[in-house]
Write a structure and sequence with these properties.
Layout: E1 7-9, E2 18-20, H1 27-35, H2 40-46, H3 52-62
Antiparallel strand pairs: 1-2
């Protein structure tokens, strides 16, 4: 899996911030939630357009 399959930066979406492909959910937002102690399950329940694969891509970028 490549993070490039799930994370994109489009100047027309959120000012070009990296987002999860097909959503307006920024990578920054996900990282902030994880830093606040949210679990992957909580993210998936609260943001149904997310799937486990892009969350793993975000985690891979953090390593």
């Amino acid at each position: 899996m490549s993070w490039k399959d799930y994370i994109v930066a489009d100047p027309a979406v959120l000012g070009g911030k990296p987002t999860i492909k097909g959503t307006r959910i920024s990578v920054e937002f996900i990282i902030e939630r994880l830093a606040q102690g949210w679990t992957e399950t909580q993210l998936l329940e609260n943001y149904p357009r997310l799937t486990p694969e892009p969350l793993q891509a975000v985690r891979d970028c953090m390593d």
